[in-house]
Design goal:
alpha+beta, 8-stranded mixed beta sheet, 655 residues
Length: 655
């Protein structure tokens, strides 16, 4: 039995009946060999092209298994969350550090059953020394100077400013040409009053070239003392120091005991209107650390974005709760409640209006390092760390400012079966971060950059999430903090490539416009919001004018006296009066510009069904091949071939 002949016979029978186009011409009897070769070439080309295109489709699918398309250009904004709004003021609050220090001292004394106001000055001094040793271990004196240095971004400028102040009042340590010793240190140095022969301005220390060695020694001594303190901070010291830093700037809203004696005294945010209704600012704002220090952050979500398993996050949470309970706008000791309707809606009347007050007259001397006057505003997705130095908007005092918000939303089908590097995104619960509760690309990148900078310096600035003291990482001194911030800008481009984009996210953008406040004149007096006599912000823009009118008639009623002091729009800084509505106060309107948003959708490029359909289409297009055609091939070259083999063997045996 010739097996090849049987196979050829089977192939011819298959070709005569096959559904594959062109195959019947190849096996047809009597056809010219040129025609047969032509059809062989045509069929082979069809097979090769179909296979190549199917392989290419498979490779493209596996290399890029996710397809991003525009889902809709009209996504209703009511389905989106409000962004997180961050407002940063400038400078440190006047007397803020000393006030919180006094609260800490009072708490310490009360734990011992002592009322500081009832003991003698000598006993109080002894008690304060005991408090310093326990609450600020390693710090040689009142920690306010240390907080001043830590709350500034330019520590060299802060130290120079402090040296200048000491030079101006004649309280610098004794200068000598030897190195700066412990007995003449910045904190405990022997002071001297300026001699008559030294009767020159304090700034002479900075301008006189002959005194450069003296200046260098003072600056180096200050730096050495600051750095020695940071090497000795323990967990208790850090907790107390963090509280001082927390309240070092004017508060978001007035806080009893810790910042203010009465409402509207020092608050950065004087008034909050949500959809036209006045609400307590403490219901939606909280103080939070940023890369510019402490700022006010709006968030309608209760959950913290920080992991609560480290000292830093626990302290932030503790102080935020402390602020809300002590807030004067909701009533001291009352827990403020958030507004009921938190939906995003289009237009100014459906937005948030904030009255901001810089309180320049209540800022500490030499505490503002910026060259501009105003407020910084950041717009970020809720639950993310506000990085104001990476992008923010400048609000000018004396202006109505309009911040229009728009958003781009991205949603994803279930892509978890696709490898992370292939889909190019991560879900919030797929990777566990060390500092943050949930994954987001911005949180991952920030954590990655922080860790990279920590590796070389071994510390972390106080205002960044991290682990401190007993939790592995120490707090940076002011100079190392400055170096840390520089290192953040030097992180290698590929260092954080593992931080993929969010599979589900909303990216916010904003546009800013502004216009100066209109003065209260005959055309708008009693009509516009600022010039209203019944609902104007505190202080009213018209307060000085009203006081002057009553002065002219020689009568100042009791109900007008408040406009001469607490509620006066005329303030004084360094002996010079100024108008708060020109230099301090700004109104910010935050609103959605459109009722709809653009939405992108990530979905699998193909499923196995899609791929099989695509391959079937290619095979059908080039060969007329179908699923039944595949079954025919199996049938003809298994069952039918075996049958023909048996028949051929029987024929041979009969012969």
């Amino acid at each position: 039995m010739d097996k090849c002949a049987v196979f050829g016979q089977t192939f011819k029978q298959y070709g005569d009946r096959a559904g594959i186009c062109g195959l019947s011409y190849i096996v047809e009897n009597g056809i010219h060999y040129i025609e047969r070769i032509l059809w062989i070439i045509i069929v082979l080309i069809g097979v090769i092209v179909a296979i190549v295109m199917s392989v290419q489709a498979y490779i493209a699918w596996k290399d890029s298994p996710v397809l991003t398309t525009v889902s809709t250009t009209a996504l209703p904004i009511k389905t989106l969350d409000w962004p997180s709004i961050t407002v940063c003021g400038q400078g440190r609050g006047l007397g803020a550090i000393e006030r919180v220090y006094d609260v800490q001292f009072k708490r310490f004394a009360e734990k011992k059953g002592i009322k500081p106001e009832e003991i003698s000055p000598e006993k109080k001094k002894e008690l304060e020394e005991e408090f310093l040793n326990e609450a600020y271990s390693g710090i040689k004196e009142n920690p306010s100077n240390l907080v001043t240095a830590m709350s500034g971004s330019n520590i060299d400028a802060v130290v120079q400013s402090a040296v200048l102040e000491m030079a101006e009042n004649g309280s610098l340590p004794e200068y000598n040409e030897t190195s700066w010793g412990n007995e003449t240190s910045w904190g405990n140095g022997t002071r001297r009053k300026r001699e008559a022969s030294d009767d020159v301005p304090g700034v002479d220390l900075f301008l006189n070239p002959k005194r450069q060695p003296e200046l260098d020694q003072f600056l180096e001594g200050a730096k050495a003392d600051y750095q020695s303190v940071f090497s000795e901070l323990d967990e208790v010291s850090f907790r107390n120091m963090f509280e001082l830093l927390w309240y070092s700037s004017n508060p978001c809203f007035d806080i009893g005991d810790y910042s203010s004696d009465y409402l509207h005294q020092k608050s950065l945010i004087k008034e909050c209107l949500w959809k036209g209704t006045r609400i307590n600012c403490s219901t939606v704002f909280s103080m939070a650390p940023t890369d510019r220090g402490m700022c006010c952050v709006l968030s309608f979500k209760e959950d913290s974005f920080l992991r609560m398993d480290n000292m830093y996050a626990k302290k932030v949470d503790e102080l935020q709760k402390q602020d809300r309970l002590a807030s004067l706008d909701s009533g001291k000791g009352n827990q403020p409640e958030k507004p009921d309707d938190l939906r995003a809606e289009v237009g100014l009347p459906k937005g948030l209006t904030l009255t901001l007050d810089a309180h320049t007259n209540l800022q500490s001397a030499k505490s503002v390092e910026d060259n501009f006057q105003g407020f910084l505003v950041g717009v970020t997705p809720p639950g993310e760390v506000p990085l104001m130095r990476q992008g923010s908007y400048l609000l000018r005092p004396g202006n109505q400012n309009y911040l229009g918000i728009s958003a781009i939303n991205t949603v994803s089908d279930d892509l978890r079966d696709i490898a992370e590097e292939k889909r190019g995104c991560l879900y919030y619960d797929e990777i566990e971060l060390d500092f943050f509760e949930q994954y987001s690309q911005s949180a991952c990148v920030l954590e990655c950059q922080l860790k990279w900078a920590m590796e070389s310096l071994g510390c972390n600035p106080w205002f960044f999430p991290g682990k401190y003291v007993n939790d592995e990482v120490s707090i940076c001194d002011p100079w190392t903090s400055a170096e840390f911030m520089e290192n953040l800008g030097k992180v290698p481009d590929n260092q954080c490539d593992h931080c993929l984009s969010d599979c589900d996210s909303t990216q916010y953008s904003a546009s800013m416009s502004s216009a100066p406040f209109r003065e209260c004149t005959v055309v708008n007096k009693g009509l516009s919001g600022l010039c209203s006599y019944s609902s104007a912000p505190t202080p009213p823009i018209w307060s000085s004018e009203i006081v002057q009118q009553y002065n002219d008639v020689g009568v100042i009623p009791e109900y007008i006296e408040k406009y001469m002091d607490k509620s006066s729009s005329t303030r004084e800084l360094d002996g010079v009066e100024y108008n708060a509505y020109t230099e301090d106060i700004s109104i910010l309107h935050i609103y959605w510009e459109s009722s709809t948003a653009l939405q992108f959708q990530r979905s699998p490029r193909m499923t196995w069904i899609d791929f099989i359909s695509q391959v079937g289409g290619l095979l059908g297009l080039f060969l007329g091949f179908s699923l039944v055609s595949g079954v025919e091939i199996i049938y003809w070259f298994t069952i039918r071939l075996a049958r023909n083999m048996v028949l051929a063997r029987n024929d041979v045996e009969l012969k």
